[in-house]
Each structure stands twice: as C-alpha cells, then as structure tokens.
Sequence to fold (373 residues):
Amino acid sequence: MTRLLPFPLLSAALFGMWVLLTGFSPGHVLLAGLVALTIPRVMLLLKVEKPRVRIGWSMVRLAGFVLGDIIRSNVAVGRIILCKPPARRSGFIRLPIALENRYALVVLAVIITATPGTLWVQHDARRKIILIHVLDLVDEEAWIALIKNRYEKLLMDIFE
Amino acid sequence: MIQAPDLPLWAAIIVGLFVVLGAVITLVGAIGLIRMETFYERVHPPTLGMTLGTGFVLLASITCFSVMQSRPVLHEVLIAVFVTITTPITLMLLARAALYRDRSEGVQDVPGDFGDEGDD
Amino acid sequence: MTALVLALAITAAQILLGIAMACAAYRAFRGPRAQDRILGLDALYLAGMLLLLTYGIQTGRTIFFEAALIIAVLGFAGTVALAKFLMRGEVIE
Fold:
C-alpha cells in the first residue's frame, strides 16, 4: 500500500480535483486515477516528513469550532469597520505554544489567519513563541487562553 | 444587462440572498481597507471577503448550477479550498514583509525580533 | 416575477462588488506604502473573482468559473511574489 500510494491524501486530492474540473465521464475518471497514481511519486524526491494524523471526532469538532469562530469574528470585525468604536486598540501579542509538530503548526497558522481579526505573524521554534496581531485587543490573557484551550488541545489530539 | 437564470422559487430565494449577502460582506471588508489607519489594522478587513464573502457567493453558485443541471455541481468547492489555503499564506507573507521593513527602518511601535530568526 | 427579483438581486450584488473593487483600487493607488498597495491589489483580485462568479450565475455558463479559478491562482502567485520582493529585494533567490 505505501509503495503503491506513498501519499494517499495527496492522491485523493488530485483525483478529486481532476474529476471536478473535467466533469464525470469514464475516460476522465481513468485519467484521474492515472494522475493520482503517478504524480505523488514526484514528492518522494523531496523527502518530506509524513504527517501522522489521527482521524476521529477531534477533526469534526475542530472544523465546527473554526466555522463558528469565523462567522462570529466576521460579525465582530464588520461591526468594528462600520461603527469604529473609539476605545478600540489593536496590537501584537506573544503567545507561548507547546505544539511542535510542523503540520499542526501549519494548520494553526491557517486557522488563526483565516479568522478575521487575528493574524499570525511570526513563529520562533526554539523559544516556542508565536507572534499574533489582534485587531480588537481587549484582554491579552483571554486571547491566549482561547487559542490554547480551544485549538491547541484539539490539534495535539489530531497530530502526534 | 438585467438577466437571470430560470430557477424555481426556493432556489431563486437562496441564490439571490446568498449572492447579495456575499457581496455586502466583501464590500464591508473593502470599506475597512479604506477606513483603518495603520497597515497592521488594514490586513484584517480583507479576510471578511476571503472567508464568508467568498463562501456565500460560492454557495449561491453551487445551488444555481446544481438546480439548473439537476445534478450536484461541486467544482466551486475547488475555489473554496484554494482560497482558504492560499490567502493565509499571502497575508502572513505580507505582514512579515511589512514587519521586516518596519524593523529595518527602526519604526517604534512594532515588536522587536525574537533574537535569531527561527521561523518557517 | 421570481426571475425579475433574482435578476435585480444579482445586478445589485454586481454593483456592490464593483464598489468593493473601487475601494481596493483606491487603496492600491493611494498607498501610502508598498505593502498597502499590494494588500489593495490582493483585495482587488478577490473582488474581481467574485464578480466573475456572479456573471457565471447570471448567464448560466461555466466558462466564468474557469476564469475565476485562474484569477485565484494567478492572484495568489502574484501577491506572494510581490511580498517576497518587499522582504528581500528579489523574487527568486
């Protein structure tokens, strides 16, 4: 299995993309299978470290949290833009992080940046600190607690 | 130029509502781009259009084409996946470039470096 | 009746997206710094992509979807190249 499909997720993604782009016909499904079988082999040359993912409820919960947070912060940022509350203050926060898995950090970076109002700026692997810019910085501790309790635990569950 | 696809009532309501909602959210984000004062505040508003704005317009498009061709048409999902993966990368790179320039010019109210560069 | 309301809704959305593009273009022209211009350009790409998708809904043709996908891909590559240029002074090291 690993010799035939070194990167099953990548193969599945390529297959899905090919079928979605060309329409569902037998010939194209065959071609998509061929592409999914051969192209991921190129990745072997890069010698990437394989992500170990535990598939389970944590993933569903993470997706739910992300969706909910995106909708909530869309409304919050929209209100800030339109009403412009005078007392608002934005700033950087330094957040200590225990995650070490590179893929988990990537997912966390995408989540933090995709949520309006927060932006991942920099990560220091040695001191395990990340730098985040927050648009509506009311309580620094609350932000740190939110990210640590909600996302970091789930990501540790999924990766590693 | 006023023209519309022929859809049943329920689909027309969904498509119309979602298209307008997505456009309004994107517009709010673009207005924020003008109204915010500093660059680091300005990075945030465009994410509105990138998340919910794109999401609503794509949902409208999926509904419209699925009803018209009476089979699930899902290729819009590709754009959604692509936008969610790529926009964080562009914003992060841009913020880091801005931070780098501000630091090298000695602007005061940006945080200093962590010492050695140790990011990826 | 349904078609008329839907057509009006789509046209309204297109006008709103056009205004959003104008806002983004204003930021790209005004600056004040290079990073602001790139940010405006990125927002412009995104609003343009959404505008193409609404045209696709309006006419019922999938060709607009492909154009939107290309804008998404090229917009990403362009913004990344520009941001990299700001950071290092060159695109390919």
Q: What stands out?
A: Chain C has a mean pLDDT of 86. The helical segments of chain C are 2-30, 34-59, 63-88.
